[in-house]
């Protein structure tokens, strides 16, 4: 292999850039693609797209890697730890970008044998949640009929991978609830309407949506992540405000939760002589894998890793904007074992670098199966 995967990944790791700021990263990726004799182009400011044409006129296969980092201070202690204070590749998107560069090299060498063309998508701002949307708007799925992507999975050792047909990652929404009462002296609750007590009851009430309203066999998470009210020990404030998120696999359930949440917050607040205002915004759809494509990808991965090293992927309630591509074309997203001690987004997150060649061989085999 001509590309030095470890050097490429360590370089990206040392200079991580958060969503929408991946200028250096995009430059590095574009330069490497050029050394492979390819013609990369920039899209949506910090995205990089590049095609390897096939021999026919059939629509292309797309392969997608995300490239952005997180606003986290790295505490891995690695010699090639981040040199950008407060920014870290704590989700391994440096690994994803490097693997896709290795795959570009493999496919460029086998170009003569490709029946279909392939489009390589280096996507910015996955963590910013708008990257896929911007790239789709820029036309990255034009003349594409299927898409494959992966995420490294530290809890699986290198050499293992996990696939799952159907829902893999959650649909998400965010909500903001404002409880309005009547402010007053802390010693005169009878002359006030306390939005803190009402808000506390609303937080508890929202958890009952999971245990008492939703179907018990449907995974559902309702998390209030922020609750703000009041300014002093002896004042009943006028308002309380909370922010949170809902995660589930069913898009119908997600819609229903918005309605239940509004009713519950209103009814509970009324019981405390307060009013509730609920804003419920649907964000990402669920990552939902096409069964036929997933079976083909899994078969190709088995030819590299061995069937005994493949498993049914664990579902997670995190969200991923790979789902937006899957709204348009059939897609497969899978877990690639990266042998770490800490999971995604931890300040000491680190992976086993052997995942780089393993990832290149696995994703190349999947691509070649789908392209030939
Ligand atoms: Ni990630």
Order of helices and strands: HHEEEHEHEEEEEHEEEHEEHEHEH
Strand order of the largest sheet: 1-2-4-3-5-16-6-15
Bound molecules: nickel (II) ion
What fraction of residues sit in β-strands? 25-35%
Let me know the average pLDDT.
97
Head-to-tail CA distance between termini: 22 Å
Low-confidence stretches: none
Helix content: 25-40%
What integer value in Å does the Rg equal?
24 Å
Number of strands: 16
Biggest sheet record: 8 strands, mixed
Number of helices: 9
Shape: elongated
Structural class: alpha/beta
Describe the overall structure.
This protein is α/β, with parallel strands linked by helices and 372 residues long. Helix content is 33%, strand content 25%. The chain has 9 helices and 16 strands. It has helices at residues 5-14, 23-35, 93-109, 131-137, 195-213, 251-271, 291-305, 322-326, 355-371, and strands spanning 41-43, 47-52, 60-66, 118-123, 144-153, 161-163, 166-169, 171-180, 184-185, 220-229, 235-236, 239-248, 275-282, 287-289, 310-312, 331-337. Strands 1-2-4-3-5-16-6-15 form an 8-stranded mixed sheet, sandwiched between helices. α1 (5-14) runs antiparallel to α3 (93-109), α5 runs antiparallel to α6 (251-271) and α7 packs across α9 (355-371). The longest helix is centred in the C-terminal third of the chain and has 21 residues, at 251-271. The radius of gyration is 24 Å and the shape is elongated. The two termini are 22 Å apart. Bound molecules: nickel (II) ion. The site of nickel (II) ion has 5 residues, from loops. Nickel (II) ion binds next to loops.
Primary descriptors:
single chain; alpha/beta; 33% helix; elongated; binds nickel (II) ion
């Amino acid at each position: 292999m001509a590309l030095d995967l470890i050097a490429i990944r360590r370089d990206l790791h040392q200079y991580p850039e958060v969503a929408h700021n991946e200028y250096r990263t995009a430059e590095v990726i574009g330069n490497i693609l050029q050394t492979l004799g390819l013609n990369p182009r920039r899209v949506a400011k910090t995205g990089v797209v590049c095609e390897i044409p096939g021999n026919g006129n059939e629509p292309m296969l797309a392969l997608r890697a995300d490239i952005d980092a997180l606003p986290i201070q790295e505490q891995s202690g690695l010699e090639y730890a981040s040199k950008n204070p407060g920014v870290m590749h704590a989700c391994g998107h440096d690994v994803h970008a490097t693997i896709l560069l290795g795959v570009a090299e493999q496919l460029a060498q086998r170009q003569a044998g490709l029946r279909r063309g392939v489009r390589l998508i280096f996507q910015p701002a996955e963590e910013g949640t708008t990257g896929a949307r911007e790239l789709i708007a820029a036309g990255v799925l034009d003349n594409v009929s299927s898409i494959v992507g992966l995420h490294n999975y530290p809890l699986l050792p290198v050499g293992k991978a996990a696939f799952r047909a159907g829902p893999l990652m959650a649909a998400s929404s965010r909500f903001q609830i404002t409880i309005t009462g009547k402010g007053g002296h802390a010693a005169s609750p009878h002359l006030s309407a306390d939005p803190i007590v009402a808000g506390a009851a609303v937080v508890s009430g929202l958890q009952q949506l999971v245990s008492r309203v939703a179907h018990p066999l449907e995974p559902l998470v309702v998390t209030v992540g922020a609750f703000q009210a009041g300014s002093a020990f002896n004042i009943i404030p006028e308002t309380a405000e909370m922010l949170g998120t809902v995660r589930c696999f069913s898009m119908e359930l997600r819609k229903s939760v918005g309605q239940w949440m509004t009713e519950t917050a209103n009814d509970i607040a009324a019981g405390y002589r307060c009013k509730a205002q609920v804003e419920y915004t649907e964000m990402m759809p669920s990552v939902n894998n096409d069964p036929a494509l997933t079976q083909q990808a899994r078969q190709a991965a088995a030819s590299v890793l061995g069937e005994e090293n493949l498993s049914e992927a664990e579902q997670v309630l995190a969200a991923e904007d790979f789902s937006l591509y899957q709204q348009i074309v059939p897609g497969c997203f899978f877990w690639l074992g990266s042998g770490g001690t800490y999971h995604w987004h931890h300040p000491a997150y680190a992976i086993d670098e052997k995942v780089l060649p393993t990832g290149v061989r696995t994703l190349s085999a999947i691509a070649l199966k789908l392209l030939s």
